[in-house]
Write a structure and sequence with these properties.
Order of helices and strands: HHHHHHHH
Number of strands: 0
Helix content: over 70%
Shape: elongated
Number of helices: 8
Strand content: under 5%
Radius of gyration: 22 Å
Main location: cytoplasm
Subcellular location: Cytoplasm, Cytoskeleton, Microtubule organizing center
Number of domains: 1
Organism: Guillardia theta (Cryptophyte)
Distance between the termini: 23 Å
Family: Belongs to the TUBGCP family.
Protein name: Spindle pole body component
Length: about 180
């Protein structure tokens, strides 16, 4: 359970790493720079107008993908920490106060851990769901590594669309 929670936290921190820098960069971009970037992108990779119009700047597609990943990771963390851990620990505290000896406390703790494992969908019956959640977390970590490389290539004037397409395909397979 702890490893799963740490994986969620790691993915959340990785996705939130460049948030403030990206917000400042978006605010500084003027409309003419966005249009120029869009035209250059269409010329370079032969992108059709409909997808260029849909996403605007090439950087926007990356930001949208990151927003989707952040949404999933944040909701997963919120669900586990509030609905599962929060309510479960309150119930366990009440039961511990009623217990009279150490053996009862031990059995209560084992029952609490078993309930947590089941509710976090980490038991054998929900292996498919747990694997899918781990794939999304891995995708978030891979994205947090590839996004800075993409930003650096944008600054150099050369875009690496292969990594972005690979990340999108991975997200489509998971969802």
């Amino acid at each position: 359970i702890l490893i799963f929670l740490m994986q969620i936290k790691r993915a959340k921190i990785a996705l939130n790493a460049d948030t403030h820098a990206d917000k400042n960069a978006i605010v500084k971009d003027s409309e003419s720079e966005w249009e120029m970037e869009e035209l250059q992108t269409r010329d370079r990779i032969g992108q059709d107008a409909s997808s260029a119009e849909r996403y605007g700047s090439p950087n926007t597609k990356y930001l949208l993908l990151r927003a989707e990943l952040r949404h999933v990771v944040n909701n997963l963390e919120n669900y586990i920490m509030t609905q599962i851990h929060g309510s479960g620990s309150v119930m366990m505290e009440k039961e511990i106060r009623k217990s009279t000896n150490l053996d009862q406390i031990h059995s209560l703790h084992l029952r609490f851990l078993s309930r947590m494992r089941d509710r976090c969908l980490l038991h054998e019956r929900a292996a498919v769901v747990a694997d899918t959640a781990r794939k999304v977390l891995d995708l978030a970590l891979n994205f947090s590594v590839s996004y800075p490389r993409y930003k650096a290539s944008l600054q150099k004037g050369e875009e690496d669309w292969a990594e972005m397409r690979e990340a999108e395909e991975s997200l489509d397979r998971v969802s």
